[in-house]
Amino acid sequence: MSSEIPCHISPRFKIVHALIFIIAYAFIDFTRLSPAWMLAVILFTAMILLGRALMYRVSPAKIALQSCIVLTLAVPIALFAPLARIDTWSVETVGSAYASGWPLILDVIVKAYVATFLVSAVMRSMSLETFIGALARLRVPAIFIMLFTFLYRFTDLFRDEIRIMRDAARSRAPFLHGWRLLAFYGRMSGNLFVRAYERGEQIYSAMLSRGYDGTLPSTERT
Questions:
Q1: Is 218 left (phi over 0), alpha (psi -120 to 50) or beta?
Q2: How many domains does the chain have?
Q3: How many CA atoms lie within 13 A of 74 on its CB side?
Q4: Domain shared by 118 and 17, yes or no
Q5: Rounded to an integer, what distance in angstroms lies between the CA atom of residue 52 and that of residue 58?
Q6: Coil, helix or strand at residue 16
Q7: What is the SS3 assignment for 80?
Q8: Is residue 1 part of a domain?
Q9: What is the largest distance, in Å, between two alpha-carbon atoms of the chain?
Q10: Cα(14)–Cα(133) distance, integer angstroms
Q11: What percent of the chain has pLDDT over 90?
Q12: Do 37 and 120 belong to one domain?
């Protein structure tokens, strides 16, 4: 979460606007639209997202690329969504479900991507301290702010642990490839979560010893 170019739009406005847009967009039912209307809605949405990114003074290309990470979850869910409408399983019913269910697949993928894009644009346009301060001014319960703070901190911690384990694997087993490498990472994944959890406890204890009371100091106006 970092600002690329100073933006003078209120952080609270950014958060509220993104939340309202995501909720309103969730009510759009792509399964009831014709292909022409679907294309029109997607193009109009793309223009809005581009405008918001430029207004927040963040790179639209970086946000668009960063938001693609949600597709790793959204696409598998979307591909299985039409199967929920099947009563009896057969090649014909599965084919019919996908022939008529492609708008549902598009609905899931587009909404997930739009929400991720907006959240990424908002968070990249301000520092963590500014974002936390804006949430506090919006009267968000303190428990949610604290959970988000630790979630954000844990993300960096988890990324560091992945880097450390990857470097260790390269130095100790540089010739592993293919399925053997995949199996190696599978065995190490459990250790990764344990190590990250232990480091998280250590960091939390260190924060408490330094006077952490559940809030982060903010040095920026919100």
A1: beta
A2: 2
A3: 18
A4: yes
A5: 9
A6: helix
A7: helix
A8: no
A9: 65
A10: 13
A11: 15
A12: yes
Question: Mean of the pLDDT values across residues 142-154?
Answer: 73
Domain boundary among 70, 103, 126: 126
148 with 50, same domain: the answer is: no
11 residue type, one letter: P
Residues in the chain, total? 222
* Residues 25 and 85 reside in one and the same domain: yes
Whether residue 122 is found in the same domain as residue 155: no
DSSP state, 81?
A: G
Instruction: Please write the tens of the pLDDT for every residue from 33-66.
Output: 888 999 999 999 999 999 988 888 888 998 888 8
Task: Report the number of secondary-structure helices (H) and strands (E) in the chain.
Answer: 8, 0
Buried/exposed 168-203: b ≥16 CB within 10 Å, e otherwise: eeeeeeeeeeeeeeeeeeeeeeeeeeebbeeebeee
DSSP-assigned states of every residue in 180-202: HHHHHHHHHHHHHHHHHHHHHHH
pTM, two decimals, is: 0.68
Domain carrying residue 77: 11-126
Same domain, yes or no, for 121 and 62? yes
- Confidence at 112, pLDDT banded by 50, 70, 90: very high
Encode pLDDT of 15-34 as tens digits: 898 999 999 999 998 888 88
Residues sharing a CB contact under 8 Å with residue 135, sequence separation 6 or more, in sequence order: 15, 144, 145, 148
pLDDT at 4: 44
